[in-house]
Design brief:
The complex is a heterodimer. By secondary structure, chain A is α+β, with helices and mostly antiparallel strands. Chain A has 22 helices and 19 strands. In chain B, 44% of the residues lie in helices and 20% in strands. In chain B, helix 2 packs parallel to helix 3. Classes of the chains: A alpha+beta, B alpha/beta.
Chain lengths: 730, 123
Amino acid sequence: MRSALGAPVNLDKRELAAVLAPGVVLALAALIGGVLIAATLEPADRAVLAALLEPRAALLLLGWLLLSGALGALTRSGYLRWVAASARLAEEARVLLTTDVQRELTAEGSGETRALAEVINQLAQQRSALRADIAAQVRAASRGVEQERNRLAALMAELTQSVVVCNLDGRILLYNSRARTQFRALSSAPALADGAELIGLGRSIYAVLDRALVAHALESVQQRLQRGAAHPSAQFVTGTRAGQLLRVQMSPVREIDSDADQAPALNGFVLMLDNITRDFADESERDRLLNDLTEGSRASLGNLQAAVEMLDFDDRDGATRERFLGVIRDEVRAMSRRVTEAASHNAQTLKTRWPLEDMLGADLVAAACRRIEAQHGCRAAASEVDPALWLKVDSYSLLQALVYLAGRLAGEYDVTLVQLRLVQVDGRARLDLMWTGPSMSTETVVGWETDAIRSGDATLALTVRDVVERHDGAFWFERERVRHQSLFRLLLPLAGAGEQLDAAQFVRGDSRPEVYDFDLFRPSEQVRELADRRLVELAYTVFDTETTGLDPSAGDEIIQVGATRIVAGKLRREDCFEQLVNPQRDIPAAGIPIHGIRPEMVVGAPTIASVLPAFHAFAQDTVLVAHNAAFDMRFLQLKEAQTGVVFDQPVLDTLLLSAVVHPQQDSHGLEAIAERLGVTVLGRHTALGDAMVTAEVFLKLIPLLAERGIHTLGQAREAAQQTYYARISY
Amino acid sequence: MSKHVLIADDEPNIVISLEFLMKREGHRVSIVRDGDAALQAIRSERPDLVLLDVMMPGRSGFEVCQAVRADETLAAVKILMLSAKGRDTDLAKGSALGADAYMTKPFSTRELADKVRELLGLA
């Protein structure tokens, strides 16, 4: 508006001046000329001249008008050509300078001005090209970083050792799924919080490990660093609250850009955790066996030796002799028994010595079939495979052995189809490699069993017998006459019950979880008051509850709690809490279509008394966020006396924050806000689904709040308090 | 005059041989099967020497040895400890608690007889 009105007025004045100037100059020149001429004339002459000019005054005026009109037009066009065009050009160039608008300047005015416009245009083009170039480089660089991070995350996910990376505050900034599984075993509420209250980005490692122990290890790492040790790592073993033994290896994460001549500064540390509870028990068992064997044998040998030596004396009668022989028989029997026992125990503990891994039996069979077909051109099929069977195997050597056996069958017996069968028999897995065809001699079988395995052109330093021994298993040839079928049978160990669950944990979820955030390496500003901390840097637990009704004081109860976390400005979908709660009352039918929780679903669920402590642990050290938080908080607060759990952390309400950002909108329902802010709504009306939507809404609200000058937690709470909606009481 | 030897061991298979050996050596022999009985017998019978097994029900041989050595009036009783525990630490413990000798099973009966004779001042 301003430029549309102001600019023309401005131009008009100067243009008008340019048009009028020649007339004024002419008039002035004529006037001064007239006065000068008149001053030099005699009064008589002056009268003659006046008489001469007077009748022609109109003519003179007309001449002046014409002349000044012509000159005015000339100066105007000169003004437009020289001055106005430059001014416009300058103004347009200034717009280009201050904005990112991409626009060609129109060349007008004199040739020089046009040339100037051309140069400005070229500069502008160069600028946008440079900008695009920089943007492309930045994109490429961040793509590279992103790729490396993904590679790292993928690598971590595949590791069978648990890895946790922390910053110097002990806050977790990376963990892999193995660590998650291990922490699950450490959790005191595994069924409820699933270990998520212990491990999560931004959580403190000190919830699991003793702070003093970690500090001590850090100190020794630092000392080693200062001495210039090549591998400045430290190790310690610690018991956890849940009674597990952990062996922890700590390595430093060094500051990348610290001075080269100084000892590298620590940035954080990597922990590699091994749960050695089971190993330790095994080792104690082994010690006990060894002890039994040596000391028990000593006593027996003592008895034997004494008895034998007594028999050497000549002066014993028949009865005495028989007594000593009785001792000898007795002790020999006792020693035999002891050795047999020790041997059988040893076999059981032996299998922990070779590193065997858990593997789904069906996966092993499928892999074996694929490889046999690829390497030997002999068809291979799974005939009967127990889908729920988990093996504890060294899959590499076992696959080599199976492929090798199939290869010899194809090569030496012209077998064109082999079948694999895997079933569970008497606490062991029975893997059969079957084919239809002639029998083979025991010598052949033993030969195949003890020949070095050939894989392609290479011969491995490994025989089928080695592989079987590695698994503490057995291998033999059998023939089912009726079906005219021959088979090699392998007995293999099964994975322990707990281990199967662990392994199942890995395949859960379709996307690779985001389990790292190196931005957390930056030291936190714990010292600042919570209220002064910026919304973007806080950690949040975003939650929702489903309830039997709307009035907790009239006996309505929570039937589901769902929550997720926001750490370092990102939603951590994998870091979630979801739990059905037994309300110990009926669930009104009216609500069931909304929350989808039927009475039978909560029958086996824990009660609120055990769920709330687990949720409290999950939410520790975070700000609570909920939609219409007052409603959920009232349910939580009414349980404080019963459960002893107090949620005293700050609470933010997305409903109120939405009202702060969009005061003119009628609806601040979750769905309406989600639509307004472009959040896709999936799986609403489960507690976790709603919590996820609320979290995304909250993340979109943070920048909108910043536009209104609301940056800190304190400011957000104050603004929320002042909205109209905050005054509605529940 | 023959010497009195007390055998304290809960394993009959060794007691048979020890009893035969000691009697053959010309000693008077009595037998107990646990630690408490051993201590009682030592106090009442005051044997010249005790063949004391370390691993016994009730009081262990170490405890019996310690109790005997705490009693000045029993200072003359010689203690020869017999044990299936062959660790250095056990040997050290036995002699620290006041055993006159410590033999680890299995042992040669000849050496045992020699040792007993030596402790009884008969050698």
